Every structure is written in structure tokens, then in C-alpha cells.
Amino acid sequence: MRVRQIVDRIGAILALYSFEQPEWGVSEIGARLGLPKSSVSELLASLAAQGIVERTPRGRYRLGWRLFELNHVLLESKPLVREARRGMQELVERHGESSHLMVLDRHQAVIVEKVQATLATQILMSRVGLRLPAHCSACGKLLLAWRSWDDVARMFEQVELVRFTPATLVDLDALSVELRMIRQTGVAFDHEEIVPGLSCVAAPVRDETGEPVAGISLSVPTYRFVGGEDAYVRLIANTAYRISCRLGYAGPPPDAIDLDRAVTSQPGAVMARP
Length: 274
Known about the structure:
With 274 residues, the chain is of the alpha+beta class.
């Protein structure tokens, strides 16, 4: 078996593991991937010897602790995560709302860091490693906005725009309009598009080249968000800017951006409730 073929098969096996199915058998993997049981068994045995997976008493396989160690190496060695964590902690301590750092992986936004607010305002559905649909999450839309529309359109030709709430945006033309506005204003919103009663605003974290490498968001119960959008936009934009500067960004501060326009012109903006 060629090296590339081995690596591809190992990658396919590891990609099967999820929160929903954290344990797999040899026959299951073989059937799912169309591989001979003997090949799967040999690969799993090698992965187990390295601690990448571990064999259960029932002869099935779970992810091993070596991955946990490597995950911490990854997160702690990334200046993005270290610097963002500092800014997020300051933001949450001062304002009491939860914050997330997310990166884009194709059509999904992946949470790579989370700073939780007080127990009274916890967001139980989020966790580090969770993947959210990019088309309806604030950070996801923010990062999609810096991709060419041709790339985004091709991406969603193969992926359904799933509706989670009545506010979820599921029309490609409407998504195109919103991404264009996000690119112009530099901030993105999630107005109860994934979780009813929860609103989010996100701003880009940029590297020394000025390119957005991640999105940082503030998640706020809608009853507190409505009427205070301008303040939340400025909070997240300023926090993202400070983090970006620590990463080498030397561009203009958020004051140079028309943040008022960002609030008033967002498609799907939440209207004040009686």
C-alpha cells in the first residue's frame, strides 16, 4: 500500500469519529468506507500502538489520549488562540457575555476557543470543537464574506442550507447580498438564526497581511441585544482589532469603519420588540 493511500485511509477513518458516534467497529468502518476488514484491522492496530485510538473490551475502537495531548499542543502553540483568549477573557469579564473564536473549514465554522460568561448566561449548545453551519452563524458568514462568491456558490451547490429557526437564511441570493454587506461593514450578525432567543455579532481577527484568519463573536440573549446593537458592535470590533494588532496587523482601527451602517443595514436585523 502506497504512503499516500495509507494516509488517505487513516484520515478517512479518523474523520468518522464524532460526538454522535465516538466508537466504531472494524466491520462498521470497512462497510462505511468500502475497505477490506483486514486492511481496516491492520490500520487500527497501528493507530492503537501509537495511542491515536484505543481498543475497548468489546473489540471496538475509540479515539486515544494521544490526540488529546496533540490537541493541546496545537492550541497552545497557535499565537492566534493565545492572543485571542486574552482579549476574550477581558471582554467577558467586563461585560458578562460569552465569546467564541471560530475558523472556517469549508462550509462550517469551527469553535477553537470559548470563554464562558456567568452561569446565569451560559450557552450550553457551544463547545470547543463544535462545528456550526457557516451560512447562518455570525463568524461563519463573516469568514465566507472574504471568499470569492464563485467559491462560496460552488461550496453550497453540494451542501444544503439547513433551516434551524424561522430566521435562518436559506436562499443563496439573499446570502450573497448579506456577504457583500458584511465585507463592506466588517461585522456580521446571527439574529436568532441557529438558537431562538440568542443573537450574535462577530468581527474579523486579522494577521499581519490584513487577511481575516478567524472570527470572534459575542453571544447575547436577544432581549438584551435588541436596542444595544451599536454598543455590542463596537465592543466586538474593538476587541478583534486589539487581538489583530497583537498578531501583527497594522491597519486602521474600527473607528474608521462605518459601524452605524453595519447595525442599520444588516439583512434580517432583529426589530425592537414591544
